[in-house]
Amino acid sequence: MEHEKIERISELTRLSRERELTHEELVEREALRREYLDGFRQNMQAVLQSVRLKRPDGSLEPLQKKEDKP
To answer: In this structure, which of 11, 22, 25, 49 has its CB flanked by the most CB atoms within 10 Å?
Structure first.
């Protein structure tokens, strides 16, 4: 995400502390936050996919996704 967009999120957050945001500002802030979180999640998934566990025998095993419990 571009630095300008992150700055805009911060600016809108500062404004929300001073006054009520307009509907357009709220929509813009939500869209920017969603874009930021989506990018963060994609980056984190890429990092986790590159993680390897080293077993006592020296072999490397990819990190497995934990299954949800019912």
So the answer is: 25
